[in-house]
Design brief:
The chain is mainly alpha-helical and 179 residues long. It contains 7 helices and no strands. The protein has one domain (21-55, 71-178): Growth Hormone, Chain: A. It holds the Pfam family Sugar_tr. The chain crosses the membrane at residues 21-42, 72-91.
Amino acid sequence: MGLLTLVEDRPTPPSVYNWRVYVLAMIASCGSNMIGYTSAFIGTTVTLDSFRSEFGIDKLTTAESSLISENIVSLFIAGAFFGAIFTYILSHYFGRKVCLCVASAIYAVGAGLQCGATSKTGLGILYAGRVLSGLGTGVASNIIPIYLSELAPPAIRGRLVGLYELGWQIGGVLGFWIN
C-alpha cells in the first residue's frame, strides 16, 4: 500500500473518479483566486505615487491619507462580510452553481468599477467597486468549499477541497506579481 493510496469503507465505482470531477473542482476553485488577488494587490496600490496623485491623496495630511487608505481596504472586507451572510439565502433558494455565477458577476462589476475610477469620477466609484467585489468574494469564499465537498466522492474530498486554498494562494501570487 503506497503513501497516497486511499482505502474506502464502501467501494465506489471507478467511473465516479473520472476527469470530470477534477475539472469541475478546478474550475470552481478558480473563484478563490478572487480573494487572493484582491487582497494582494490593493495594499501596494494605495501606496503607489501614481495612485496617490491621481486621487489627490498626496496633497492630504497623513491622517486624511490614512483614512482614505483604510476605507479602500476595509470596504472590501465589509462587502465580503455581507456577501457571506447573503450566501445562505442565495444558495438555499437557487443552488450552488447559480450562487457561484452571481458571485462572479458581482465581482466582475466591482472590478470594472475599480478599473474605471479616476480623479474625475472620484473615490466614490472606487469605494463602490470595493464593496461590490467584496460582496462577490464573500459569496464565493463561502460557497466554493461547500460546493467542492458536495461534488467530491468521500475518498478524494480532502484533495478537491484543498484546491480552494491552492486557488487562493495562486490569486495572491498573481496579485503581488501584477502589481
